[in-house]
Amino acid sequence: DVKVTQSSRYLVKRTGEKVFLECVQDMDHENMFWYRQDPGLGLRLIYFSYDVKMKEKGDIPEGYSVSREKKERFSLILESASTNQTSMYLCASSRGWGELFFGEGSRLTVL
Amino acid sequence: LAKTTQPISMDSYEGQEVNITCSHNNIATNDYITWYQQFPSQGPRFIIQGYKTKVTNEVASLFIPADRKSSTLSLPRVSLSDTAVYYCLVGDRVKETSYDKVIFGPGTSLSVIP
């Protein structure tokens, strides 16, 4: 089975802190994605990557950056966390543009 | 932006068949229709995908009319464990540079009542 692992299920950070969310997939998928999910808004795409060192902005990239140095790992970075970035963050991967496989999610609270 | 429209919520009693319809008036020739299911505190998981007519697997059926401007996810004899949010996506499986297929709308929140 494909496994997408997110480093932390729950995080609590303070405003202004730098936050790293790590995601690792074990199926050699080319594409990886970061979403955030908020009540009533569904999943919104932050960034995606279709190859190592390649990245594309999604619908809401402001306040975020990403890093993909290795094919299996895709990191989401909040340079200076703010309270409006309190959310559930979901990582996904896919082979080509087929089925998306999601991680369990990381719930971030920014105080 | 999501290219689909679904009801925000639905209720159903246990044992009933549930049909969730998704509108995608601007579906393109190469677009496929994909449905995902999401339980609370989990990431979405793939349920079914189709291009036209009918697709059935062990979980659900997907009905797509000839004009492909809508599709219906059918869940037979739902149970309490089917309470979840269901998302409909459309997109081109071949087009390498497009991420339209991975844009999720708000989905349909299905509540199954005992």
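qc> Chain A has a mean pLDDT of 92.
qc> done
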